Amino acid sequence: MGKETPKISLLLTGGGARAAYQVGVLKAIAEWYPRVHHSPFSIYCGTSAGAINAISIASYASCFRLGVKKLEWIWSRLHSRRIFRTTPLGMTGYLANQWFARLQASHHERPPFGLLNNRPLRQLLNQVNNYQRLEKQITAGNLHGISVTASSYKSGNSVSFFQGQQGIAEWDRAKSKGRRALINTEHLLASAAIPLVFPAARIGQTYYGDGSIHQLAPLRPSLKMGADKILIIDLINQKVDERDHTRAPGLATLGGHLMDTIFSDTLTADLENLSRTNSLLANLPEQAQRKRGMKVVKHIHLSPSRSFEPLAQRFYCHLPPMTRALMQLAGISPKDDAAITSYILFEPAYIQSLITMGYEDTKEKESILRNFLK
Q1: Under 8 Å CB-to-CB from 185, ≥6 apart: which residues?
Q2: What does DSSP assign to residue 104?
Q3: CATH number at 8-237+267-310+346-373
């Protein structure tokens, strides 16, 4: 009897517009396979913007290159106006409604707060995603499982909504839950609801926000769904320039620092824990590993080779005028720190630059990745 094909998980982290980098990575990988070839990944786990990418690719698990081509087509045609309201009337009207809603009596239900109205994103996701394809891919055996992680504002838990084969069980761990669900647009909007920027999304009776907030163990959904290998495409911002540490940090610097911490620090700690566990298991016989229900899980951690900030500074002028005005009113300027801008700069020139960066970074590691994906 032949050796069972390993289950490879694709883990896509969050990062707003930065997630275009992941498209470039996947584009390079897709070129290594024939036009009609199933995906090398059978498990997909995504958080925030990474969850949106994961759903799109997983829907075409039976034809990997087609799925990547569609994902690239979507990203290459994005504009800020397809993510949030950008017109002066749309932005001021939305903020006015937010303000008036909070002047009403407490028994009136208030809408969740967000500086930007992401209704266009809801319309886009409903338009480009065919969620029924996920269940068809699962039934056909092309997809083992997919998860979308969001943060519950009610319990403070990280909740991974997953859809997959019947053998995958729900889990309850400290600050982490896994719940079976039929994934839809609400789950994606919840996972991508960056605090203060986009409003929280309601699933059932609970409001959820960006999945990176309480995600203490980003690798857990992949491990719980039985992954043997994990390819992680991280969106951590490389700090290449030394700053003047004698200057007091402004709002932009503080905001960018907090957002980078939310989206990346927990992954670093979880990877250290996985490496330590693998080292311990490597000294045990395979039979002893199976007896304890544990196994060595290999991983590759991909991250951008260059900082996002120079690109964000370069293309800052492409943001809609009203968006720039709102950022300036909040004290955010690209001269201070472009980290925040790099999250919301959904403009074609910036996005194409990130896709190219991801593509080139992956080409440089082609031999390592090819061997890993066997």
Answers
A1: 122, 125, 126, 129, 131
A2: S
A3: 3.40.1090
> Which one of 9, 39, 42, 48 is the catalytic residue?
48
Instruction: Name the residue among 309, 366, 304 with its Cα closest to residue 339.
Output: 309
Give residue-wise pLDDT tens across range 90-130: 888 888 888 888 777 676 677 888 888 999 999 999 999 99
The chain-wide mean pLDDT, for the chain, equals: 88
Tell me the whole-structure pTM to 2 decimals. 0.91
Catalytic: which of 210, 270, 336, 337? 210
210 in catalytic set: yes
Q: What is the pLDDT of residues 133-180, one digit of tens each?
A: 999 999 999 999 999 999 999 999 999 999 999 999 999 998 899 999
| Residue 48 falls in the annotated catalytic set | yes
Structure confidence at residue 2 (pLDDT): 44
Phi/psi class of residue 175: alpha, beta or left (left: φ > 0; alpha: ψ in -120 to 50)?
Answer: left
d(Cα 203, Cα 160) in Å, to the nearest integer? 13
Structural domain boundaries in the chain: 8-237+267-310+346-373
Distance CA 66, CA 73 (A): 10
Contacts of 220 (CB under 8 A, 6+ apart): 160, 171, 173, 176, 178, 270
**Cα distance between residue 54 and residue 76, in whole Å:** 17
Whether residue 301 has pLDDT greater than 60:
yes
